[in-house]
From TrEMBL:
Organism: Congregibacter brevis
Entry-linked SUPFAM superfamilies: BRCT domain, DNA ligase/mRNA capping enzyme, catalytic domain, Nucleic acid-binding proteins, RuvA domain 2-like
Cofactor(s) needed: Mg(2+); Mn(2+)
EC number: 6.5.1.2
Organismal lineage: Bacteria, Pseudomonadati, Pseudomonadota, Gammaproteobacteria, Cellvibrionales
Name listed for the protein in its UniProt record: DNA ligase
Superkingdom in the source lineage: Bacteria
CDD domains linked: BRCT_DNA_ligase_like, LIGANc
Residues the entry annotates as binding NAD(+): 34-38, 83-84, 115, 138, 175, 292, 316
Family matches, as InterPro entries: BRCT_dom (IPR001357), BRCT_dom_sf (IPR036420), DisA/LigA_HHH (IPR041663), DNA_ligase (IPR001679), DNA_ligase_AS (IPR018239), DNA_ligase_CS (IPR033136), DNAligase_adenylation (IPR013839), DNAligase_N (IPR013840)
Keyword entries, A-Z: DNA damage, DNA repair, DNA replication, Ligase, Magnesium, Manganese, Metal-binding, NAD, Zinc
Keyword DNA damage in annotation: yes
Role summary: DNA ligase that catalyzes the formation of phosphodiester linkages between 5'-phosphoryl and 3'-hydroxyl groups in double-stranded DNA using NAD as a coenzyme and as the energy source for the reaction. It is essential for DNA replication and repair of damaged DNA.
Length: 674
């Protein structure tokens, strides 16, 4: 290849990779699979290695990290990075807006911009001639630490700005944070390796940015979001904060998709309410909202007080962490026999609710926390995550506080407890003689995504098991009205309704039935993959290890659990009784859920459907090759929205996702099927 051709190829690869980075990190709409990106990156790395004269510090290959530092250097910010005053109520926010109106001597509140207040680490990025040359932490506001090598490893931070309209030098300020999914995955890996997990995503982001070895930072799932400009040229600069954000976006810099322009107090309160309702569903942590006067001329007139601007304020959400005491630890038994320690807490208000229990995961987690009875602890509740104890305040521990010990026997049935090699979880060996496992198994079997037996709640299941009416899930189909009306708070009408629901559940699908059996590690996706691959229950039960491993969603661990389940004579007896009771399903016609007409599309189903349930609609979509998801994002292809779609519909409309109703859905399914 000629020298000019090599140079053109290198430049072309860089441009392509930068474009793909922009799609992935900023637009959240990747257009190529990871293997295509990796292939192009490897080719560029090879060319840059063979032709060192073509290397460029802004190349996408330079995100892997550099040699470790001995310490971070202190650097001075071109302009101080100030903090914000806080408002904790509508009244305090209204008082802030009143001061703005008074100081500007205007009749109405000027236009504002509202953005989520990300719970991360504030940083300053300096670009010269469009190239990232320095990144620094906020520090004390005047001086921060130079973390350029670490920030260069973050995929959402452009090493080179897009376009050509950037000034000779500009400072972009924003937040570096760790998304929830990345945080949970990182902590799960830490637990598996016996390492100490991070307390929360903010601490995880801070710890990752302060690694002296940038190659460690490169392996952490960090992201960046810009929220302001720092030092910049006055000539030709936008006249409002909103226009600056749009300018950043045109340069390929991530900005918040939730930013909005607002009017007065009513708009601000409405935004706070709307974002608060979405808070738990967001993919990242936020601790409030930042309101800013949009017009820069008005900002300059308002000025600053102490170390905070008069033109901006943060409205805080309820804290998602709180301090309380552990009053005791109980051990709960799940349907697979897993024994989970649960902390009983002195009630504390955190994350908008009163919390009195928190998961402790397993005994290894108790050991890592060094938890004693009566300890004062920090409890965290974020998103839909069950509240958990994240740290112990050891300075407040009583000298006589005993260490929490693992139970030697099952707390429900007194069967021996076993510890399986390679697992942190203790398990009860009692099986179905353990009432706790049986109750959990029956609840799972009857759950909406399994056999969908409406009306079979926790209290009724407890009575079934405690009175000996149900000794395994097949006994559900032997129940009669006489047995049901003998239960507490069960009248004849309720009994008939429950019996009708049990009878209706006999007609199901193979994938639902497999999922309902509660086989360890077999979730909905694995159950669907098994049904589509084998087609019959008999074929799944007769499959050997090699045949099971051919299924796309089955690995060695899942395969062993499947073999053990179908090998057990007690399980075979229950299966025979279920089939004899009339449990059945249509023959599976699709060999696999790939290659369908909707392959490559991601669908979300929300709201009430008339022709079928949401689960049935999702099954139809997956059978045609589509991927289904429970949340709307930039990767969503279509939202099927029935009445009551709610926040998912609003989010889809804000992201420009296609939205269709049920009649259009049925039409497309029919077309795709034919």
């Amino acid at each position: 290849m000629a020298e000019d051709d090599i140079k053109d190829r290198v430049q072309g690869l860089r441009k392509q990779l930068e474009h793909w980075n922009h799609e992935y990190y900023v637009l959240d709409e990747p257009s190529v699979p990871d293997q295509d990106y990796d292939k192009a990156l490897r080719e560029l790395q090879k060319l840059e290695g063979n032709y060192p004269e073509l290397q460029d510090p802004a190349s996408p290959t330079q995100r892997v990290g550099a040699a470790p530092l001995s310490a971070f250097e202190s650097v001075e910010h071109p302009m101080p990075m100030l903090s914000l005053d806080n408002a904790f109520s509508d009244e305090e926010l209204g008082a802030f807006l009143g001061r703005v109106v008074d100081r500007l001597d205007v009749d109405t509140t000027p236009e504002l911009v509202a953005e989520p207040k990300l719970d991360g680490i504030a940083v300053s990025l300096i670009y010269r001639e469009g190239i990232l040359v320095r990144a620094a932490t906020r520090g004390d506001g005047s001086f921060g630490e130079d973390i350029t090598l670490n920030v260069r490893t973050i995929g959402s931070v452009p090493l080179r700005l897009q376009g050509a309209q950037w000034p000779p030098e500009v400072e972009i300020r924003g937040e570096i944070f760790m998304p929830r999914a990345g945080f949970e995955a990182f902590n799960e890996q830490a637990r598996r390796l016996g390492e100490k997990p991070f307390v929360n995503p903010r601490n995880a982001a801070a710890g990752s940015l302060r690694q002296l070895d940038s190659q460690i930072t490169a392996r952490r799932p960090l992201e960046f979001c810009a929220y302001a400009s720092g030092q910049h040229p006055e000539e030709g600069w936008p006249e409002s904060h909103w226009d600056v954000l749009q300018l950043f976006a045109s340069w390929g810099v991530p900005i918040s998709r939730y930013a909005e322009r607002l009017g007065g107090l009513a708009d601000c309160v409405d935004y706070y309410r709307r974002l608060g309702e979405q808070r738990d569903a967001l993919s990242f942590d936020i601790d409030g909202i930042v309101y800013k006067v949009n017009d820069f001329a008005a900002q300059r007139e308002l000025g600053f007080v102490a170390r905070a601007p008069r033109w901006s304020i943060a409205r805080k959400f309820p804290a998602q962490e709180a301090v309380t005491k552990v009053s005791g630890v109980e051990f709960q038994v799940g349907r697979t026999g897993a024994i989970t320690p649960v902390a009983r807490l002195e009630p504390v208000f955190v994350g908008g609710v009163t919390v009195s229990n928190a998961t402790l995961h397993n005994m290894d987690e108790i050991g890592r926390l060094n938890l004693h009875h009566g300890d004062t602890v920090v409890v965290r509740r974020a998103g839909d995550v069950i509240p958990q104890v994240v740290s112990v305040i050891e300075d407040r521990r009583l000298d006589s506080a005993p260490v929490i010990q693992a139970p030697p026997e099952c707390p429900v049935c007194a069967s021996p407890v076993e510890s399986v090699a390679g697992e942190a979880t203790l398990r009860c060996t009692g099986g179905l003689i353990c009432a706790a496992q049986l109750k959990a198994a029956v609840r799972h079997f009857a759950s909406r995504r399994a056999m969908d037996i409406d009306g079979l709640g926790e209290k009724i299941v407890e009575q079934f098991v405690d009175r000996g009416l149900v000794r395994d899930v097949a006994d559900l189909f032997k129940l009669d009205q006489t047995a049901l009306v003998s239960l507490e708070r069960m009248g004849e009408k309720s009994a008939n309704k429950l019996l009708a629901s049990i009878d209706a559940s006999r007609q199901t699908t193979l994938s639902r039935f497999i999922f309902a059996l509660g086989i360890r590690e077999v979730g909905e996706a694995t159950a669907l993959a098994l049904a589509n691959h084998f087609g019959t229950l008999e074929a799944i039960g007769a499959a050997d290890l090699e045949e099971l491993l051919e299924v796309s969603d089955v690995g060695p661990v899942v395969a062993e659990h499947l073999l053990a389940f179908f090998k057990a004579s007690a399980n075979q007896e229950v299966l025979d009784r279920l089939l004899a009771a009339g449990v059945s399903w249509p023959k599976v016609m699709v060999a696999q859920n790939t290659g369908g007409a909707l392959e490559g599309q991601t669908w979300v189903v929300s709201g009430k459907l008339e022709s079928q349930s949401r689960d049935e609609a999702e099954e139809a979509l997956r059978a045609l090759g589509a991927r289904t998801s429970k949340s709307v994002s930039g990767k969503t292809s279509v939202l099927l929205a029935g009445p009551g779609a709610g926040s998912k519909l609003s989010k889809a409309e804000s992201l420009g996702v296609e939205v269709i109703d049920e009649s259009e859905f049925l039409k497309r399914v029919e077309e795709a099927s034919s």
